[in-house]
Amino acid sequence: MCGDTCEGKPDGYYPSVNRPRPAYYQCEMGQLYYLSCQPFQEFNPHTRKCQCFEGVCLHGDGWKSSFCRGINWRVLCSHGHPIKYRKCPVYRPYCHCHTHVCVQTCGHVYGPGGCCQ
Question: What stretch of H or E contains 107?
């Protein structure tokens, strides 16, 4: 089976390989129906829902700053899609450059004045 097909698939939503993002399709009783997410959204194959487009996930896997959730939020990217979010505490949050673990202050990671950008 190449491309978008409902052959052998249960009813549900699937990412489209024939159409560009944010297209996806629905299989219902063997019939294929193309759908599209709203502007600034994409279909996430992990959750099988439309959600805010995390463009940072197109630049590799791992923890990154979240565009959709905003300041203090990190997103774990896998194969171009967000799969998990983490929020740093409200009190002076920073994210360690290499581990992307939330830390209380930059001083705990690099010493005074050694914050990563």
Answer: helix 107-110
CB atoms closer than 10 angstroms to residue 95: 20
Cβ atoms within 10 Å of 101's Cβ, excluding its own: 13
Whole-number pLDDT of residue 12:
95
What's this model's pTM, rounded to 2 decimal places?
0.58
d(CA 89, CA 55): 24
CB under 8 Å to 20, separation ≥6 — which residues? none
| Cβ proximity of 93 and 105 under 8 Å | no
Contact call for residues 52 and 40 (beta carbons, < 8 A) = yes
- Cα separation, 74 vs 82, in Å, equals 10
